[in-house]
Amino acid sequence: MAEKKLTVKEMLKINIRGINFIYKLIPWNYFLGFTLIIVWVLIDYWTYIFLAILVDNIINGAAREVLIRNVVILVGGHITLVVLHWILAHYYYYCGSNVWELANVQLNRKIMDMDYEYMESKAIQNLRRDIDSMARDNADGGGLNKLFWNVLPVISSGVNILIMLFYTIYLASKSSIVFAGEPAKAVLVVFLFIAIFALLMALALYKNNYAQKNIYKKNEEMLPLFRQIHFYTEEYISTEKCGKIIRMFQQQNLLSYYIESLFSKLNGKVNSIGRLDETRNAWSGIIETVFSGLIYFILGVMVLNNAISVGSVCLYAGCISRFLFYFSKFIKVSTELAGNTKYVKMYFDFLDIPNKKYKGTLPVEKRDDNKFAIEFHNVSFRYPGSSKYVLKNFSIKFNIGERLAVVGKNGSGKTTFIKLLCRLYDPTEGEIFLNGIDIRKYDYKEYLSLFSVVFQDFKIPALPLGQNVAASVEYDREKAEDALRRAGLSSLLEKLPDGLGTPVYKDFDKDGVDISGGEAQKVAIARALYHDTPFVILDEPTAALDPLAEYEIYSRFDELVGTKTAVYISHRLSSCQFCNDILVIDNGKAVQRGSHGSLIKEKEGLYYKLWNTQAKYYKTGSEAV
Ligand code: ADP
């Protein structure tokens, strides 16, 4: 979180952007909000103005018809305004009740569209979480929703204060009657009044702002606590995986110790926020009382000197009561909004994270024969924030339409090679070419659509099976069924109650189907097959299986992909022995290449060593698999 103090200009800019942003999410609110402010202000003054007229009418013995007309205007106007206010407020708050949800949709979209490398940044993950905590977990927190709920009150109370100020100055100017023949004194009274008002306003703002700053400071101190509580309660103790560890190692007391201390710290912060809030209210109360005393004093002097009518006293007394109400409200809400600016900024900071990746415009050549050529030319790569090269001067070429197996020890850089090929990352140095053109020059989405990858840590979300396979709400049912059958899920398909519409897992639907790890793998493979892309990549999605099962899946998959280009990754050499083109990676370097038959003959090579080491663990008969 940036600690730089925001200037007033920056604060205004951020809040105006926030208001515009919210009102664009809900366009009706421009009209509703504007009309509401007018009605809001009118509603108070309508009553006071016509009440004053009526009192003067009665004292001055006005005609019956005039009295009746004014009563009708007073009551009729008031009822109309109240009804109008009720309707407008209903729609305004109805529309506004989902401001945060709509804003959250934008955040989620952003997190899915941002450069992949940001996914691994803790700072960015924390920013996302903190924005959510500030808006949701933190009762006194803020962000865009706080801006929405406070923007109308701050404008309407500001307008009310201005109107009241105008009236009070007018009232004070009447002191010319009290100081008959001494206009200089009358002017002095008006100036004195304005000066006292400005002084009290400044004092109230200063005191409130000070308290508000401390309140937000406490709020901020709560953010890391929320993060930790979230981790312990949701990501650790509530998961099946950790539930086993908790029981086996009897971690209950250890975890309870941390959870209790976190909640107790949180409680301490909430209490101190409460105390700060009370101090703030006490200061507003004192200032309010001093100010109202002053106005009533002026009013009393006016009446005693017959400077104003009795009707006007009603008007001013009413105005004063509203003024005091709005004065406190304005001070509270405006200082809250000033402090809240930081959290509105946090939201925009997240949305404004630039995508650094260069995204070209060249269309990818559509080839019916799927003949694409890929070349890694002197590619070196370090993960962002790391000084260690994972790939170093890595150069390979492979002709597409063929098969490539990439083998090597765990951590040698195989997955990183795939991530670079699929442009999840760009090389730190060197280039990757597709058909002789740097892949950065191609239209990013078009380039990505060349690949279907089944990653080691593939995930199948709890969505209907068909949508899962197609990665789309609407999809070709026949194609989805065909992909599932080819992936070996015919029998699962037969027994699903709602066919492709059956949700995977029971997380959100009791009629969902629980699938095994092996079936999930096949769904992930079906997803790759459905997309019918020129490249298919298996990046050890089978690591949890035994070597024989992995070999079977890889070789079966090889038959399924037909004429497409397939890249197989494995640390088990046996799984890829069917492949004619095997690339051996070691320590981020391409060290050997050839068929199983030729590589096994290179007795000094890594392949031979690895093969023999691994064969010890899973020899079946004379053949190692
Ligand atoms: P393989 O697929 O061969 O097992 P990887 O390509 O996954 O190897 O990893 C190669 C090296 O890069 C490993 O040392 C690993 O720790 C490191 N590495 C992988 N991902 C990241 C990351 N996101 N940030 C930093 N280092 C990483």
Give a verbal description of the structure.
With 625 residues, this protein is α/β, with parallel strands linked by helices. The strands form three sheets. The chain has a six-stranded mixed sheet, with helices on both faces. Strands 2-1-4-5 form a four-stranded antiparallel sheet, with helices on one face. Strands 11-12 form a two-stranded antiparallel sheet. The radius of gyration is 36 Å and the shape is elongated. The chain starts with 7 loop residues before the first helix and ends with a strand. The C terminus is likely disordered. Bound molecules: adenosine-5'-diphosphate.
What's the β-strand tally? Answer: 12
- Strands of the largest sheet, in order across it? 6-7-8-3-9-10
Radius of gyration: 36 Å
Low-confidence stretches: 620-625
Q: Which descriptor suits the 3D outline?
A: elongated
Task: Write out the distinct hetero groups bound to the structure.
Answer: adenosine-5'-diphosphate
Task: Report the sheet with the most strands, covering strand number, pairing sense and barrel closure.
Answer: 6 strands, mixed
Give the mean pLDDT. Answer: 84
Distance between the termini: 53 Å
Structural class: alpha/beta
* SS element count, helices: 20
The percentage helix is 55-70%
What share of residues are in beta strands?
Answer: 5-15%
